[in-house]
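Re: that backbone. Tokens:
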């Protein structure tokens, strides 16, 4: 792999490899050297777009942000460049197909969630101020801390119809759901909204709803306003995951993002 990197290092159409250290695609520090690929024009052309790749003991991780003037084709071009650089061949082509499919589904679900929340406002079920409530009320006795909002009882009723359909349709999908701009997950998937047992290690796996996922990946899923954000990271359960998200808008206002996590 190093020979391949050195070979393309002289290509003025791509970026130059630089030395650093990272733990995963979130950018958190980790032990050990790696090669960090800072993409040039053929990886991310134009303002608002970025594609970085990290090569370490755990393999290649990608972080692709598609900007306002781009479309899903940018994911294909970015991944094609990574394939050429790292010689991923068939694996990259399979990943490209999955990434595109998941990105399209995230965008569709983001639009549907926006419509659901707009309908709640139009019907009088929720006020606009309720939908955009950021006054998180701690739920006693929860660890990690979980929260209620003025709208989460409503989303418990209506979000599963959108979110569970993604879980049911794709075997490789681990989670799929809507988070607000701060990474708050008001209504997680049913598999992660089971009654807590009191066993912290078990509850970390089965009772993840109503948490604020404020890790770097989680924050970006909700805060990102570009059409598509693709990240690869190591989940707090230890799994290496791809996460693709698309912004949710309610009445033209940015509410958060719809994120889909699937196995790397």
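Recovered sequence:
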């Amino acid at each position: 792999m190093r020979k391949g990197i050195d070979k393309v290092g002289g290509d003025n159409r791509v970026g130059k490899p630089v030395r650093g250290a990272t733990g995963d695609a979130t950018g958190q520090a980790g032990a050990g050297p790696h090669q960090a690929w800072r993409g040039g024009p053929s990886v991310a052309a134009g303002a608002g777009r970025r594609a970085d790749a990290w090569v370490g003991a755990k393999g290649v991780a990608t972080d692709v942000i598609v900007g306002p003037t781009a479309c899903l084709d940018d994911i294909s071009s970015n991944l094609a460049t990574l394939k050429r650089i790292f010689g991923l061949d068939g694996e990259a082509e399979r990943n490209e197909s999955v990434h595109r499919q998941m990105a399209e589904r995230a965008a569709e679900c983001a639009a549907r969630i926006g419509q659901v929340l707009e309908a709640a406002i139009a019907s009088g079920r929720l006020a606009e101020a309720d939908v955009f409530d950021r006054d998180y009320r701690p739920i006693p006795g929860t660890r990690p801390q979980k929260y209620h909002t003025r709208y989460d009882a409503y989303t418990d009723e209506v979000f599963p119809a959108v979110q569970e359909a993604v879980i049911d349709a794709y075997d490789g999908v681990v989670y799929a759901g809507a988070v607000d701009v701060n990474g708050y997950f008001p209504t997680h998937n049913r598999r992660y909204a089971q009654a807590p047992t009191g066993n912290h290690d078990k509850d970390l796996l089965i009772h993840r709803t109503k948490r604020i996922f404020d890790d770097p990946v989680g924050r970006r899923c909700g805060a990102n306003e570009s059409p598509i954000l693709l990240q690869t990271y190591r989940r707090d359960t230890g799994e290496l995951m791809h996460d693709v998200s698309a912004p949710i808008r309610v009445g033209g206002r940015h509410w958060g993002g719809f994120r889909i996590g699937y196995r790397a």
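Residues 2-88 form one domain. Residues 1-62, 65-70 have pLDDT under 50 and may be disordered.
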